[in-house]
Amino acid sequence: MRTKPIALLNETSPRDAQANRASPQPALAEIVGGNAPDKAYSPIVVAGLVRLGEFLLLAGVGFGVHQLHVAPLWGHARQYLIIIPTMALFAVVALQAFRLYQLSALRAPIHHGFKIAGAWAMVFVAALAAIFFLKLDEEFSRVWLAGWCVAGLVALFAERVAAAAAIRALTQQGKLDRRTAIVGGGPLAEPVLGALAAQDEGDLRILGIFDDRSEARSPDVVAGYPKLGTVDDLVEFARHARLDLIIFTLPITAEERLLQMLRKLWVLPVDIRLAAHAHKLRFRPRSYSYLGDVPVMDIFDKPIADWDVFIKTTFDKIVGSICLLLLSPLMLTIALAVKLDSPGPVFFKQKRYGFNNEEIEIYKFRSLRADSGDQEASRLVTRGDRRVTRVGRIIRKTSLDELPQLFNVVFKGNLSLVGPRPHAMQARAAERLYDEVVDGYFARHRVKPGITGWAQINGWRGETDTPEKIQARVEHDLDYIENWSLTRDIYILALTPFALLKSENAY
Predict the structure, then answer these.
(1) pLDDT tens track for 357-381
(2) Residues 366 and 463 grouped into a single domain
């Protein structure tokens, strides 16, 4: 695990670190995390795409050699349609067995050249053995086999060199970094930081240390990494700078301290791990996960990560685009009705909470009189509210006013089709802000918000005038987050039109 200190770490003195802790947290986040790209790529997804690309490449070369040599003489034999994809698949399996899809291997194809050639050769040795023992030597061209072996190896090396260049570029841009904060300084943190820094594989980027203890028990700098603040500071830090992983270096016996900190941190969309280096109690190796060779215990995981993010984003873009196309006549009709019903703009834009509490702007069809717009949603719409227009009353009850949020899904990408509904920044229940009513309210922002959600199809839509209503909505949102699956998204989308028929709470 190759840890990469940020430039600040080499320039931060204990006095500077103290000044940073006293400064506003957004400013600290800009200093430490300002160079972080907004978008990061999962190494698991990158390696998976390389696997898929190499399968298609090797199969394509096999069919290409077949087309050049075999097809002109003997036609398109059916057995080649079976053996070519099979051997390409086994090649990917062999490369995986040699651990050649780790980022460290993908970055250095020349260094791992013998392993790559050996894995490819093994596939042909196995194929030749199968052909010999099954007496199929008359079924396959030897020239085709030799040509595919050589051409496939050349193509594989060329692809690996191109992939290495692309991965190095992503690494230099910080898009493959796993940005990490350490919770707990002092003597227990030093061996963990040393063990992480001593490894060569991976892209852990340690930003700094957060600890509630005083300087006497937790110094300003540990193993070259500065203490940036307290655990409360870490929550705010994660809201303003990209953070992927939190590692606790506290002993497992400090149960009360761990629980106290976890109550604050579990609302963040990050992985949380407990370093096993600090444990005197040892478990079986399978009880741990590993950061390189460093054992850790999994406490919390990002609810939607790696391939799940890729699948959900792809689903949103494809289905959202289809919905936008199919519903465009209806949206044009609503836009015309809004314009003719009352003076003012067709669309209403409002700031709301998005993923990780980021501020996003969503679009709706205007349903209130133009002179009664409530950008802050400080006053909820109630039954018989005189601010609502005639068209507005219809589109609010049926939630058709939400249709412009398809633009957020397809073009801006800050909304999903399915997820916790984004609430207005100053929305209240019984005159209290939502986060004051519900403990752990911000945990619903660990995933991207959605146009519809689990709470909405279970009847929790519309007015939230009591603490019980917002509590029930948040509970459904958290249930959705913890049990997300693509099939559940499809199920929610399928039930949404029927849920809209129950409009007793929508005004």
Answers:
(1) 888 999 999 988 877 766 665 566 6
(2) yes
Residue 221 pairs in a beta bridge with: 226
Instruction: Give the burial class of 105: count Cβ atoms within 10 A of its Cβ; 0-12 exposed, 13-18 middle, 19 or more buried.
Output: buried
Q: Which domain holds residue 391?
A: 307-499
The DSSP symbol for 460 reads: -
CA distance 425 to 240: 17
Cβ(369)–Cβ(385) under 8 Å? Answer: no
Domain C-terminal end among 280, 300, 320: 300
Q: Same structural domain for residues 141 and 69?
A: yes
**Cα–Cα distance measured from residue 43 to residue 176, given in angstroms and rounded to the nearest whole number:** 6
- From residue 198, alpha-carbon distances to 99, 285, 293, 423, 479 in Å are 20, 20, 10, 45, 40
- Phi, psi (degrees; rounded to nearest 5) at 140: -125, 145
Distance in angstroms (rounded) separating the CA atoms of residues 300 and 478: 14
Helix/strand/coil for 366: coil
Same domain, 159 and 55: yes
Residue 289: its H or E element: strand 289-291
Assess if residue 116 is contained within a domain: yes
In DSSP terms, 289 is beta-bridged to 296
Task: Report the candidate in 285, 291, 255 with the shortest Cα–Cα distance to residue 272.
Answer: 291
Is 336 among the domain residues?
yes
Distance CA 228, CA 25 (A): 10
Residue 407 has pLDDT above 50, yes or no: yes
Confidence of residue 9 (pLDDT cuts 50, 70, 90): very low
Task: Check whether residue 25 and residue 168 sit in a common domain.
Answer: no
* pTM, rounded to two decimals: 0.82
CB neighbour burial string for 113-152, b if at least 16 within 10 angstroms, e if fewer: eebbeebbebbbeebeeebeeeeeeeebbeebbebbbebb
Question: 110 by DSSP, 3-state: which?
Answer: coil
Does any domain span residue 362? yes
Q: In 342-499, where do the E strands start and end?
A: 347-353, 359-365, 416-418, 428-429, 432-433, 450-452
Phi-psi region of 459 (alpha: psi -120 to 50; beta: other; left: phi over 0): left
DSSP 388: B
**475-506 residue pLDDT tens:** 999 999 999 999 999 999 999 998 877 655 55
Q: What angle do CA 350, 356, 361 make, to 5 degrees?
A: 15
Question: Is residue 377 situated within a structural domain?
Answer: yes
At residue 189 the predicted structure's pLDDT band, cuts being 50, 70 and 90, is: confident
